[in-house]
Amino acid sequence: MKQAKALQETATMLVGFGNLSFQPLGTVKLRCGKESNESQMLQFYVTDTADTAILGAAACETFNLVQHGNKNRIDSKSPKLGNLTKEDIISEYQFLKKS
After folding, report:
1. Across residues 45-49, what is the average pLDDT?
2. Domains in the chain: boundaries
């Protein structure tokens, strides 16, 4: 039988939906992995709420559960920029200004 890991203290406040904030009981690091990936040590915040546990963005990326799509990303160092001016980009992506 494996021995339980001790919780480490944390000053982090968690904020849930509806801006409900609460102090976790502590943190624990556990080795996690998927069959197709190597395992990684992940930090979990332990709470005494009855909600479903979630993984943060970094853990989801580590296990390729989510990926960033940079298909339309253009910045000042992007080779896609070429000879485009700021005005060309704004004209091409006008629909983004509506937000």
Report:
1. 84
2. 14-98
